[in-house]
Amino acid sequence: MNKFKFDWLLLPFVGIGIVLLVWGISSATWATNLPSPAKTWEVSKEYVLDPFAKRGEMDQGILRFTWYSIVLVAKGYTLALLIGTPIGFFLGLSKTFTKIFDPIIQIMRPVSPLAWFPLGLVLFLGAGKDANTLAALFTISVCAMWPTVLNTAVGVRAVPQDYLNVGRVLKLSRAKTLWKILIPATLPYMFTGFRLSLGIAWLVIVAVEMLIGRPGAGGFLWQEYNSAIYEHIILSIITIGLVGFALDRLMSLVEGKLKASH
Amino acid sequence: MPFLELKNVSKGFGSTLVLKDLNLTIERGEFVAIVGYSGSGKTTLISLIAGLLKPDTGTVKLNDLEIVEPGPDRGIVFQNYSLLPWLTVYDNIALAVDQVFPNWSADKKREHILRYVGMVNLTPAVDKLPRQLSGGMRQRVSVARALAIDPQILLLDEPLSALDALTRMTLQDEIERIWEADRKTVVLITNDVDEGLLLADRIIPLSPGPGATLGEAIPVGLARPRDRKALNHDPEFKRLRALVTNQLLDYGSRRRTTLTRKLTLPDILPEDLDQPRVHRPPLRPHEMKKEAIIVTS
Question: Are A146 and A105 in contact (CB under 8 A)?
Fold first, then answer.
């Protein structure tokens, strides 16, 4: 048992070591423009050690940038859940609704965030200064909502007939059946959807920030590419990855808790 | 006037007729056991009484009112407990009590729920979730939930068949004790003849499906309260047991003789071993064709 835990703590570092090695060799041999790990640390130190510093609009500590991104994601993601969950319930409950909207959903689902964003800009052209932000929120929610929609629909369809029979025997009203039986029974599926949606929202925010050059993890990345400070690209990539990983862990903790209680 | 009345009830799913021409009358306060083989349509029958299913023909009446939908006047204990897994024992029962007695004060509801939890001996487990309970305990919660809404009739759909033999006996004794206390009308569906004899006033055999129907009712005149140990040596108990068992076995043998099955031969013929291996493709009768060749010389 002890050895098992030890493995889980130690072996990931072996993986990190291998990646650093490949990275170092690459930057020393064929990819000469790629900064070495040591150089990357040297140049990024300031951003990591003082993560909440604000020196200028596009010159801030890395966690401060990340925080901007997280706030925007949180808004777009909330919007996605608020729209996606009810759609999922309708899809799960009504065959007619499914027949009407399923093809459209299947067509909209694979569209890249990069394709949605200009449409978002067009939609909110009249908003002036806020157009960028509104278009970003639109893109995040329209891309991130599908896993929530589809998982909720699957969850609703998978509610055991026994649970519904309990409601029928007690003559629960429609609203009560929804709140007391359907939603609790669907919750584990919904959270699987929520978790996948969050992953997508986080993917989308980086792309969107690069397009609008908004301060944030993605915006910083693109700006530093344009300023030829390649070390900061790597710093951004690592940060984006770590935050995405942390968000996913967080959601799967909640999801696991819910699954265990069912 | 009978309390529960089924008249010429038939029910099928797709092309199979599950229940055929069922007639059943039950008086108020009676405990009736319907005993039959697995898969003979027992659950369909209880679903019809519960109103979860509608009969194809015939009528089901409770108190002279036709049953068209489920309702809390009929408490059901399902075979698989049907507890909501995210609610505690207390909350599972509270969901039912809140719905059926919306005008009661919170205190009155609480006291009522706890009384029924106590009745099935689950007071120590009142705040547990179903997954923390054994099968027997879950089924007690289900019984308590059904009783707590004070139904006019209690429908028990093989409530104990998923439990081990010892737990089943304990619960049988508990059901008997609870029934003695308030004498509700009960329909018990079971595949256990002894269970029926221990609990019921009348046993009605259900012939095996498809097209299952109810047999002649067998009254159980054993004195109550019935003691499991004493019953084992009671000649009347032995006689009734033989009667019900024979009736059911008789159904079984009759089913054997009336069973017709289409016999399908495998689509292959024996190989001709005189031929070399490469020239012996499988001979399939349906692929064989005869053709007439006219040879002119």
Answer: yes
Taking CA atoms, B227 is separated from A231, B169, B177, in Å, by 85, 11, 11
Show me where the domains of chain B are located. Answer: 4-258
Interface mutation target, options B95, B139, B142, B156, chain A, most CBs of A under 10 Å: B95
Instruction: Round to the nearest angstrom and report the end-to-end CA distance of chain A.
Output: 28
Judge whether B19 and B11 are in contact, CB under 8 Å: yes
Find the domain containing A149 and state its range: 45-51+59-260
Does any domain span residue A14?
Answer: no
d(CA B181, CA B173): 13
Report ipTM (2 d.p.).
Answer: 0.74
Domain B4-258 has CATH 3.40.50.2000: no
Find residue A60's DSSP bridge partners.
A54
Shortest Cα–Cα distance, A181 to chain B (Å):
8
Domain tally, chain A: 1
3-state secondary structure of A80: helix
pLDDT digits (tens, 9 = 90+) for A63-117: 888 898 999 999 999 999 999 999 999 999 999 999 999 999 999 999 988 899 9
Shortest distance, CA B89 to any CA of chain A (angstroms): 14
Which residue from A minimizes the CA distance to B82?
A: A162
Q: Determine the residue of chain A that is closest to B132 in CA distance.
A: A261
- Looking at the partner chain, which of B70, B85, B131 has a beta carbon nearest the beta carbon of A169? B70
